Amino acid sequence: MPDERKMKRLIIWLIAIIFVSFSLAVILFISSGDNWFISDLPFLDNVRHIPL
Amino acid sequence: MNQQEFMHSLHRELEQLPHDERKEIMADYQQHFLVYLRQGKTEEETASLLGTPKNIARLYKAEYRVKQAELESSAHNILHAVGAVLSLGMFNLLMVLGPFLGMVGALMALFCTGAAVSLTGVILFAGSLVSIFQPGAVDLPAALSSNTLTLAATLFMSVGFAAMGLLFIIGDYYLGRIFYRGTLRYLRFHIRLSRKEDPHA
Q1: Shortest Cα distance from B167 to chain A (angstroms)?
Q2: ipTM of this complex prediction, to 2 decimal places
């Protein structure tokens, strides 16, 4: 196992990757149109058909 | 059992310990004999007061194993330490083995969860990447690959899963370290309890 400092840096990187990738995934899913991800969210009706 | 038999038996039981440590323990017991004999007790009475060499040796072996596990952290050492403490009695078998196996099981389950989440991410990443360049090459669920944007979202989601699995495994490693230290303290506590029952050891 790497030393503590490297480990801390790795954990911060992993948290950043998780945050960024899931955020992007959510944005892309919503902007991709009518799909399973947003079909049950009626309040997102106006977001669902963003012209791309 | 006279003094010579007692000392011979104790020496044999302590064979697994390093020479110096064994010598020190033997000197201690020689001293105990001297003190009791001066008080007017016979060798046999002293031997029965000191306890059986087997039980005495078990206590010292347990202490030595725990010390070894503290000096060098390894699965081999902790298993030996737990095994040595278990040999101290039925009470330890119940109070040490149960919680130890439970915690090891939980840590292993957490590790497997992390590995599974990570692997899911890697497989999903490969699948969605192939699907972007060659649609239809991989049979992905329609919900994850209905169009290019959904595929891109799946790609990012898979990266998130892979990173999350790795984070799980790292968390498991830190939990394992806490568990290792906690186990050693718990073993020490059980050795102290056994010592109270056998004040000469």
Answers
A1: 7
A2: 0.71
